[in-house]
Amino acid sequence: MSTTIDADIRFMRMAIALARRGLGLTWPNPSVGCVLVRDDIVLGRGWTQPGGRPHAETEAIARARDHLENATGATAYVSLEPCAHHGQTPPCADALINAGVSRVVVGLGDPDPRVDGGGIDRLRAAGIEVVEGVCEAEAAEVAAGFVMRITRSRPLVTLKIATTLDGRIATGSGHSQWITGEISRAFAHGLRANHDAILVGAGTAVADNPSLSCRLPGLGNRSPVRVVIDGAASLPLTHDLIAGASVTPSWVLAPPGRSAIRRREYEGAGVEVMEIAAERIAEDGAGDTVDLREGLRVLAGRGITRLLVEGGGRVAASLLRQGLVDRIVWFRAPRIIGGDGLPVAAGFGVDMLDHAPEFIRLSTRATGDDLMEIYARAKDDEKIPSNGGA
User: Which residue among 70, 163, 168, 364 is least packed, with the fewest CB closer than 10 Å?
Assistant: First the structure.
């Protein structure tokens, strides 16, 4: 491996690390990192700012200038292909050209039809050397939510689970606080900080009255949008998710035709109610809920790229049944409840092992006395409608 390749990998990983800083803050835009380097010296670093702009490239160029540096002859390492279209900001490809860089190293191509190779073509047309696909898998993991929103019209879905060793999320009476320890709960709050939105079912919301906020010191401003599936308009107006909607946005997904009075009350409290087509839950006869695939499509339309799902068992079952879970973060506590406890997922019709959703374990670590495991979907088993849409 040459020295140039070693340097490309090292600086691209720096750019990817910068991109991670913006996760949960930049939607609907992707979180991108950029590093400007000349003679093995970092001139400027940038990452996408809250709200999606300024973009990483213009931030890196500006930061270099703040230190009386310019980018003439530099190499720009960018985790995602520089944009080539005029939106609320000029194209980043033009910013790099005007800054005088001589080389651009790209981690991942941008699938957005407004870009999709156009940024790279523009750079090459200006005589700039472009190297593609450096640390591509790592860059793709950071951009996965944005890519999913563009290519599948839905967010990347991460199912967060906290259970006993035997997969129970609560006792038979519904008591669940707290199954896992304080360290695991701190990690869970970190997950909230790097997701755009967090979703729960109304049953879980009523039973636990969660605030669904990030309560880690210094990260209170990184609480995601709270989303509740409330098919029966059952959340009381005193619930934290309703009463606190003026501070942290709360969205309610509900089937059409539910209580007009309650809807007006929700909206009067600052909650946004989105009507989603109903889906009959045939497996357990529980009645109607929202069509989660349609719900995810609506959330993506509002700009959500990364969705954290925290409960409950019926929501988890519906997502798993439809192949809509992309990641699982599973916290296991060293205790056992037994068969009368509530399972992590309600039944969703798996009769043969070949039909069970499969996941690949990416990592395992101790979180105090608990264990945190992270999984990714093993195969693309999403049940896509016959028209090919998502």
Answer: 364
